[in-house]
Amino acid sequence: MEEKVKNKNKKQKKLHPNDQNSKSTSDFAFKPCSDVKGLRFGGQFIVKSFTIRRARLLELLRLISLPPPTTTTQHREKTTNWKSPFPSTTAFLPTNFTILAHHAWHTLTLGLGTKKSKVVIFVFESENMKAAMDGLWPPEIPLGEVNKKLIRGTMGCEMARFKFRKGCITFYVYAVRRIGNLGFSCADDLRTILQSVAALKDFIDHTAMLAMPNQKSINYRAVPPPVAMAH
């Protein structure tokens, strides 16, 4: 009996997770692209046809409430040495059609339709990897094809997924690296983006909060300048 108890204890020690030191704890979050979780839509199947587009840098910074890069005289004189923030990051935002369609679908279904939009951010381990993926990925893509073409279709890579619900906008942040690489060389960029998204307040109305200079919200009204009047 004593020998059987000793054998059981030995098996339990082998299966204890603290004894698995083959990988660092930071690598457990990375999984092959075929296994990593993608975008979730719930029961609203119609939103899969809504499109998202590649975001400009200033749009991404504004969305996650980060200050824009400063342009000093030194930067103007030496533009070749200037580097933009997050050079290895690609983000996709809802298009004008998606923003209007979400609002229309919510209205037509008498409030039963979802008003949730999705923002997808990819942080690559290097600028070269981002440039290669930007050349392969389309500038605009339906939400229903993101899992198949962007996440599952990224061959030879593995990802770590982070999801944040911020009111009517859900942020999906993916860290992307080559299979076999340890650690993450752009960890500082990833950390800054995750902290910024986590600190965001809930978006109440994405039609207004996602309005960019060339993408006005549907309730936008131009306010005329004040006119001087003589009394």
TrEMBL record:
Residues 18-27 have a biased composition (Polar residues). Residues 1-27 are annotated as: Disordered. Coiled coil: none annotated. Residues 25-219 form the DUF7851 domain. Pfam families: DUF7851. InterPro entries: DUF7851. This is DUF7851 domain-containing protein.
